[in-house]
Amino acid sequence: MTFRRGVVIVGGVRTPFCKSWGAFNEVPADELCRITIGEALARNDLDPRLVDEVIIGNIAQPAESTPIARVAALKAGLPRRVPAFSVNQNCGSGMQSIVSAFHRIESGAADVIVAGGVESMSRIPFLLGQAFTGDVMRLRRARTLPQKMAAVVAARLRDLRPISALEVGLRDAICGLSMGETAEVLARRFRISRQDQDAFALESHRRAAAARARLREEIVPVFPPPRFEPVQDDIGPREDQTMEQLARLKPAFDRRNGTVTAGNSCMLTDGAASVVVAAEDRARELGLAYLGRIRSYGFAGLDPSVMGLGPVYATAIALERAGASMRDLQLIEINEAFAAQVLAVRKAFASDDFARTELGLGSALGEPDPAITNVNGGAIALGHPVGCSGARLALTLLKEMARRSLSLGLAALCIGGGQGAALVLERA
User: Fold this and answer.
1) Does residue 135 register a pLDDT over 80?
2) pLDDT band for position 2 (50/70/90)?
3) What contacts 159, CB < 8 A, 6 or more positions away?
4) Considering only CA atoms, which of 357, 365, 363, 354 is closest in space to residue 422?
5) Residue 401 pLDDT > 90, yes or no?
6) Nearest Cα to 55, choosing from 110, 118, 114?
7) What 3-state class would DSSP assign to 252?
8) Euclidean distance between CA atoms 179 and 307, whole angstroms
9) How far are the Cα atoms of 166, 417, 418 from residue 179, in angstroms, in the given order?
10) How far apart are CA 395 and CA 91, in angstroms?
11) Kind of pairing, strands 84-87 and 53-57?
12) How many angstroms separate the CA atoms of 28 and 271, rounded?
């Protein structure tokens, strides 16, 4: 890709990731986001008045804080003149926020943007259906007592049955499969065993537990009510996880023949991440050290029933734009929605047939080296706050590249609805 301006990620921060309905149950999404926006600016000693815009990825936007990017930005102390907007590309939302910031800066429309993502899956509401809406509207329109009584009598008890917005949102509107069921499709297609999935999950926990101190460098503690005791580490990683424990879990999505379980899937998670994206020349002018440069990106669409393969399609685009190959990558982050999904991605990367039939390439892209992929564990252990994860992947990747003095890395993830996203990031 040829750019008019170099665009860099100056730095960033995230909250700990906590299992939904746990430590962050009483913390609204806009508060999680406020914390990371403010801390990202503070850690980089950046005056909020220098920020041109705020872009935040979020899927389940709370009704009480719409648009969440604007609410969080104002609560974080940014001037009222600074505009803000939210993006929703399902699991790719956090990464899309960075790419949206990149385009605004690269075009000269902005110099400094705070981008990121947030999700409070704990606070995704239960809904009442359209029939109940009709009941309420009839009652509100009633003027006399007899009319009101008639409206109440006409209402049906079944209209009060709650609908889980979370469950509805995790089921694809086109293919009709839940996200977990799409992982089962990949497990069967690529012949991925239950044992291989559990072994992958165990390794994610092992790496994440070993990386706890390193990951703390990118985390800002949160003090959730009602006790306001600090949460400073991710809740998910389990040092004592064993294969025997994982093997005892029942399939979660295909009860009779399935292999995808709660143990080899990511957990429902609450969390937020924010990064400061800036023009390279402006960062130098302000004396800001930066973590890395955005070299290229790729988004791709595919069959929603195999949405988990999205990273392969998106990476092919991103690498072509970067003028690089899989062999050039020194560190990789692939979001772990499901163990079966990541293992299928590995096999697709390594398949000449997949490259020819699906990507239009002459040969395979090349299988990612497990030794340099998700070296600090992934979403199976850490969690996957869906609107946030794309930003978290970029932040974690750049932090680890800096620790290892590496120059080229890839962050990629699948996107519910049949899409994929990838970022190629470099350090000078």
Assistant:
1) no
2) low
3) 128, 129, 131, 132, 135
4) 365
5) yes
6) 114
7) coil
8) 8
9) 12, 9, 10
10) 16
11) parallel
12) 10
Please give the single-letter amino acid code of residue 215.
Answer: L
Query: What one-character DSSP code corresponds to residue 387?
Result: T
Task: Calculate mean pLDDT across residues 280-307.
Answer: 98
Q: Alpha carbon of 66 to those of 32, 72, 89, 396: distances in Å?
A: 15, 10, 17, 28
Give the separation between CA 284 and CA 307, rounded to whole angstroms. Answer: 40
Give mean pLDDT, residues 71-81: 98
What are φ and ψ of residue 330, in 5° steps?
-105, -15
Q: How many CA atoms lie within 13 A of 211 on its CB side?
A: 24
Residue 3 has pLDDT above 80, yes or no: no
Cα dist. 188→174, 220, 344, 354 in Å?
Answer: 21, 40, 10, 16
Q: Are 122 and 25 in contact (CB under 8 A)?
A: yes
Report residue 204: phi and psi, to 5°. Answer: -60, -45
- Active-site residue set: 91, 384, 414
Residue 352 backbone phi and psi in degrees, to 5: -65, -40
Arithmetic mean of pLDDT over the chain? 96
For 79-118, what is each residue's pLDDT tens digit? 999 999 999 999 999 999 999 999 999 999 999 999 999 9
Q: Is the pTM of this model over 0.70?
A: yes
274 within 8 A of 114, measured Cβ to Cβ: yes
The residue among 209, 253, 267, 221 whose CA lies nearest residue 386 is: 267
Q: Which residues have a Cβ under 8 Å from the Cβ of 136 and sit 6 or more positions away?
A: none
Residue 106 CB-density burial (10 A; 0-12 exposed, 13-18 middle, 19+ buried): middle
pLDDT above 80 (res 157): no
Evaluate whether 387 touches 225 at the Cβ level (below 8 Å). no
Tell me the per-residue pLDDT of 386-400, one tens digit each, with 9 for 90 and over: 999 999 999 999 999
Contacts of 371 (CB under 8 A, 6+ apart): none
Query: Which residue in the block uniquely carries the two structure tokens 């460098």?
Result: 217
